[in-house]
Amino acid sequence: MNYFKTAMLLAGLTALFMGVGYLIGGGGGAMIALVVAAGMNVFAYWNSDKMVLSMAGAQEVDARTAPDLHNMVAELAARAQLPMPKVYLMHEAQPNAFATGRNPQNAAVAVTTGLLERLTREEVAGVIAHELAHIKNYDTLIMTITATIAGAIAMVAQFGMFFGNRNNNGGMGIIGTLAMVILAPIAAMLVQMAISRTREYSADKLGAQICGQPVWLASALAKIANAAHAIPNERAERDPALAHMFIINPLSGERMDNLFSTHPATENRIAALNQLAREMGQGGFGGGASGGGFGAARGGSVPASGAAAGPWGGGSRASGPRPGGPWGR
């Protein structure tokens, strides 16, 4: 269903582009704008991992410098039947993470130090699985396509300011031209955000299936959303274009699935994960999680969102049974 919604939104974005081109009164300007926008986005697509990781201040780590994290990503990638992505660490206090790269063979997963310090290992596994789901779903490619079309719409709308009035007999006039210049890019942005929200739901579901425990991701989302209110992400604040990439919006605490949100409401995402947990015969968020989880987990529980964590650094370990696999215990 999410793929169908994404396809419909992409079709709507394409139709909007064609409509704007038609209103301007000719195909020449529309084609120029599309070629320029496509060229810009092709460059960004091939270099997206390097650009985004540099903007986020991420540093690559490996099995020697971050063995627990690296081993966890490796095992989850194997469960997802994906090539091992590169692993990066961002020195940010806010817990968060994102994935980037043009395809599974050229992918990277980046997490903040705050994520490793504030979340339990199970919760970190849920987050990593979510990001691997983005890679497996080719969400980077989808968002590149939407960015190309949205960028073309914005450029064509700007061309309309200069060329749209040459054919006033067509009925647009100055008022119609101004309306197109203002409204068309906004409409494209809304569709782009809607696609982003749709992909988040899909990544939540697949990520929960990869790690085997929806409650791990649900608990992680609650903790990250709470922390995002109180702990600023300095780099994301300086460059808001990064915001849509993170698992939780690092800039604001939207509590509604409104038109201007790049992410679904956290409450809605947790509710969907709880429903998935019930379908898998497990307890929902706030209760016990059992069954065939990541690393052959048996009976492991996830603490409430306010519980202390920090198994990667100076924090105390959560109590209760410890799963095997990449936890190395």
Per the principal axes of the C-alpha atoms, what is the gross shape? Answer: globular
Order of helices and strands: HHHEHEEEHHHHHHH
What distance lies between the first and last C-alpha atoms, to the nearest angstrom? Answer: 40 Å
Number of domains: 1
Continuous helix count? 11
Q: In what order do the strands lie side by side in the largest sheet?
A: 1-2-4-3
The mean pLDDT is: 75
Radius of gyration: 22 Å
Helix-strand category: alpha+beta
Strand proportion, as a percent range, falls in: 5-15%
| Unreliable segments of 5+ consecutive residues | 167-171, 253-257, 287-329
Number of strands: 4
The largest pleated sheet is described as: 4 strands, mixed
Helix content: 55-70%
Topology:
Layout (H helix, E strand, L loop, with lengths): L1 H23 L2 H20 L1 H8 L2 E4 L5 H13 L6 E5 L6 E5 L5 E6 H6 L2 H16 L2 H25 L9 H39 L2 H17 L3 H5 L27 H14 L50
Parallel strand pairs: 2-4
Antiparallel strand pairs: 1-2, 3-4
Helix pairs in contact: 1-7, 1-8, 2-7, 4-6, 6-8, 6-9, 7-8, 8-9, 8-11, 9-11
Could you explain the architecture of this structure?
This protein starts with a helix and ends in a 50-residue tail after the last helix. The chain is 57% helix and 6% strand. The chain has a 4-stranded mixed β-sheet, sandwiched between helices. The radius of gyration is 22 Å and the shape is globular. It has helices at residues 2-24, 27-46, 48-55, 67-79, 113-118, 121-136, 139-163, 173-211, 214-230, 234-238, 266-279; strands at 58-61, 86-90, 97-101, 107-112. The chain has one domain (2-279). A hairpin with a 5-residue loop joins strand 3 (97-101) and strand 4 (107-112).
